[in-house]
Amino acid sequence: MDEITMVPTRKCKRCGRLLFSKEALEKGYGCQCAKHIRQEELERQPLDDQMSLMDFFKTESEE
Question: Is residue 16 part of a domain?
């Protein structure tokens, strides 16, 4: 007699691959996609002493 096994899965929010691990199921991202997302977030962070466009215009108007 064949047994049917149920395995919880979910699709990755970023790439659509099936996720199986408990951690990935909770986060919604596989380990590689989570790594890419963390890297993209770091790249979006402003550099030290970096001015925004609004900071530039505030400085210009104060002079």
Answer: yes
Q: Residue 16 carries which side chain, given as an amino acid letter?
A: G
With cut-offs at 50, 70 and 90, classify the pLDDT of residue 60: low
Q: How many domains does the chain have?
A: 1
Selected residue with higher pLDDT from 18 and 61: 18
* pLDDT tens track for 15-40: 999 999 999 999 999 999 999 999 99
- The range of the structural domain enclosing residue 15 comes to 8-45
**Residue 24's Cα: distance from chain center in Å?**
13
Element (H, E) at 41: helix 31-44
Q: Is position 53 within any domain?
A: no
Structural contact between residues 58 and 49, judged by C-beta atoms closer than 8 angstroms: no
